[in-house]
Design goal:
This protein is an alpha+beta fold and 234 residues long. It folds into two domains: 6-76, OB fold (Dihydrolipoamide Acetyltransferase, E2P) (Beta Barrel); 81-222, Trna Endonuclease, Chain: A, domain 1 (3-Layer(aba) Sandwich). It is built from three helices and 15 strands. The protein is globular, with a radius of gyration of 18 Å. The two termini are 31 Å apart. The model has no long low-confidence stretch (mean pLDDT 94). Residues 80-214 form the Sugar fermentation stimulation protein C-terminal domain. Belongs to the SfsA family.
Length: 234
Amino acid sequence: MKYKSVIKAEFLYRKNRFIAICKKGFLTLTVYVPNTGRCKELLTEAATVFLTYDDNPNRKTSYTLIAVMKGEKIINIDSQAPNQIVEEALLKNKIDLGFKYNKIKREYTHGDSRFDFYLEGENNKALLEVKGVTLEKNGIVAFPDAPTTRGLKHIKGLINSKDEYLTYLLFVIQMKDVKFFTPNYLTDENFSKGLLEASENGVKILAYDCLVKRNSLEISEKVPVILEEKWNLD
């Protein structure tokens, strides 16, 4: 996916979950943050960030914070992006699900759960849920960076659907050059245990990293998944 009208700025502070204050030259900018996670290791004072500009008069702010520099690495934090780039990758058959699919539908409801994608092909039906990952330490990436009851509900929904569908949980790592993905037990033990339970019950757990540029984001390569061990990413 491509972003339009991207500028570089300096992060000052986060006013609340949705709003940050940044600086561009002598200008102070009020910026929308499209990620309700903590991102505390990323959104630090004086960090270099990338913003998109939109002059839509119906918006409360004209700027959206889409990415941040961590050392020499650009990390995308746009929570709206993973589903879009997964759809683009699915249409190009870049994500290996173990079968060829020729039908893709977004926002599919089954039971009391709504899943990000429904796929069909080769006499198979599949449900795919997508989660974006921005938390990284020493090449290890983890999810979540804040407790998520919604994420646990999706896991249970996938487990309950496994007799009727092939079920997948895909973690989109919104950066490049990582070693492996793992659940964040220290932040959300219930989600992490649920993820292991899902894997043991036939839900396929996948992780892919991304090629990130200041004005674009795309799915890149498969990343190893380690579910059993607990890693400290604080």
